[in-house]
Amino acid sequence: MEIRQLEAFAAVMSTGSVTAAGRLLGRSQPAITRSIQELESELGFALFARSGPRVSPTERGFLLYEEVEPVLLGMQQIRASAAVIGREGSRSLDVVATPALAAGLVPAALAADPALPAQIHLHSASPEKVVHAVLTGAAEVGVTSLPLEHRGVAVHWIGEVQCVAALAADDPLAAADTVPLAACAERALVTMQNPYRLRQLVDRALQDAGIAVPRRIDTNTSLNALALVRAGLGLAVLEPVTAYGMPVDGVAVRPIDVPIPFHFCVITPQGRPPTPAVQSLTEQLALAAARLLPGFVRRDAREGDGLVAQYETGSNPGRDAGSNDSGGSGDRTADATARESARTGARRHQQPTQPAPSARAAEPTRSAQAAQADQLARRAPSRQND
């Protein structure tokens, strides 16, 4: 099996025809056909069903393409990095983040970063695959949501923000400074599909408040949720990174009267000293979050274990992490503080926000279990968001 064969196969998959694949790769049509035939002969099964000049992928062809595509992308990155090294002696920077963070936060951090290398690779993936990419060294920096409890990654800091409500700009509720969670009892609720992250916090808040939702629309990205809201299909409760980082015309974003926290963090491979470019981006991500996200709180990495435990036990991470007091009055104070912070921040989110004080990164000391991570990433559902 040769790279040229895989390139021919991927080109036909992408373009839908042998002729177009030849033009894409700068090869003749017979050369593409020969490469495909050689690959099929070596594999022992057909990759395409042929009907005259047309070809359509077989089921096995689709399955193989899922494995081939990341390999070829990796080869492209190697070629690009090698060219930069040969020309300037500098390195590239590989960043992977969940879709919400990749689109809503990372670009702002990159734009303000004075230490960017000549080549930058930014990919979006599910939270499980973000961790896997960092563990295996495929990415130098990962930005993902909690819960996160993986050995072999260094957590530099944890960000905490409150979820927001997104509703159509002409909705009567858009005139209010704050949207009551109880409004979900009167409208269709747009939520995320992944039941293990943000979705469980939203569901728990609704359950605690005794709110029955008449209809649900779930999706795998916050951008989809905003588009559904703009179309008038319901009210969305979602993380604020997409809502503020990628504002959508026709959609109003408001704080919610009940604190529903969204936690995210920046990770790098454990045991690998971060390069100056990685260190700079890590700090710029925190600064960008402080500018973009109302009420952003930068937490010390050592708080991660406690936050993960609270996700697992079903307690409210925002309520419990908001105060060092364990009594009921501390919980109520944390709730009030979170609500006021969200209201105040939302009114001034267009203005720069001073970043929280820097916290020293506390990195885990246990070894990475790369094999376990690989299995987890392969078993992970195709839910992309948060």
From TrEMBL:
<dbReference type="Pfam" id="PF03466">
    <property type="entry name" value="LysR_substrate"/>
</dbReference>
<feature type="domain" description="HTH lysR-type">
    <location>
        <begin position="1"/>
        <end position="58"/>
    </location>
</feature>
<dbReference type="GO" id="GO:0003700">
    <property type="term" value="F:DNA-binding transcription factor activity"/>
</dbReference>
<dbReference type="InterPro" id="IPR000847">
    <property type="entry name" value="LysR_HTH_N"/>
</dbReference>
<keyword id="KW-0804">Transcription</keyword>
<feature type="compositionally biased region" description="Basic and acidic residues">
    <location>
        <begin position="332"/>
        <end position="342"/>
    </location>
</feature>
<protein>
    <submittedName>
        <fullName>LysR family transcriptional regulator</fullName>
    </submittedName>
</protein>
<dbReference type="GO" id="GO:0010628">
    <property type="term" value="P:positive regulation of gene expression"/>
</dbReference>
<dbReference type="GO" id="GO:0043565">
    <property type="term" value="F:sequence-specific DNA binding"/>
</dbReference>
<comment type="similarity">
    <text>Belongs to the LysR transcriptional regulatory family.</text>
</comment>
<dbReference type="Pfam" id="PF00126">
    <property type="entry name" value="HTH_1"/>
</dbReference>
<keyword id="KW-0238">DNA-binding</keyword>
<feature type="compositionally biased region" description="Low complexity">
    <location>
        <begin position="366"/>
        <end position="379"/>
    </location>
</feature>
<keyword id="KW-0805">Transcription regulation</keyword>
<dbReference type="InterPro" id="IPR036390">
    <property type="entry name" value="WH_DNA-bd_sf"/>
</dbReference>
<dbReference type="InterPro" id="IPR036388">
    <property type="entry name" value="WH-like_DNA-bd_sf"/>
</dbReference>
<feature type="region of interest" description="Disordered">
    <location>
        <begin position="309"/>
        <end position="386"/>
    </location>
</feature>
<dbReference type="InterPro" id="IPR005119">
    <property type="entry name" value="LysR_subst-bd"/>
</dbReference>
